[in-house]
Design brief:
about 150 residues; alpha+beta; four-stranded antiparallel sheet; globular
Length: about 150
């Protein structure tokens, strides 16, 4: 589907090393750091959850999360362990039926045509729910370990 993103769970020490430039993201990827990679479906998941309240933490984009001048990759976002816990809590209580209803109510003004293109909405729904399942498990594990999460687009 296109552009990939990666979510990487990191302990505080690795975040410090990454921020200081002592280690690069690629080295952490190669070391087997816990991660969750998604293709373009991540943008659809974010769109249908919304970008306000705790939902904004699941796919942390924008100025609020920008890590300028930290040694992190350009455009990367970093969630604190507390924010990771909030995201995990939000995802565990997510009402999938409400998401499905949002999909069904969405019209061209919401950008649905751009997201769906010629795809079958039911197939895409199943695909997005697989992504959501992966994110739920990833955030629950990272929160359980008290880790931070680095989000970046590849």
């Amino acid at each position: 589907m296109g552009m990939l993103c990666n979510f990487m769970a990191l302990p505080d020490e690795q975040v410090r090393q990454l921020s200081s430039g002592a280690v690069q993201v690629s080295a952490l990827e190669e070391s087997g750091a816990e991660s969750c990679a998604l293709d373009l479906g991540w943008s659809a998941v974010a769109f249908f959850m919304g970008l306000e309240g705790p939902a904004r933490l699941v796919v942390p984009m924008g100025e609020e999360f920008a890590q300028k001048g930290t040694g992190l990759p350009h455009g990367a976002s970093l969630l604190t362990a507390e924010q990771v816990g909030e995201a995990a809590s939000f995802l565990s209580g997510l009402d999938r039926e409400a998401l499905r209803q949002r999909l069904q109510r969405a019209d061209d003004e919401d950008g649905l045509t751009l997201l769906l293109g010629d795809e079958d909405p039911e197939e895409l729904w199943a695909y997005w729910m697989e992504d959501l399942d992966m994110l739920q498990g990833f955030y629950a594990d990272a929160a359980g370990r008290g880790q931070q999460v680095l989000f970046y687009v590849l």
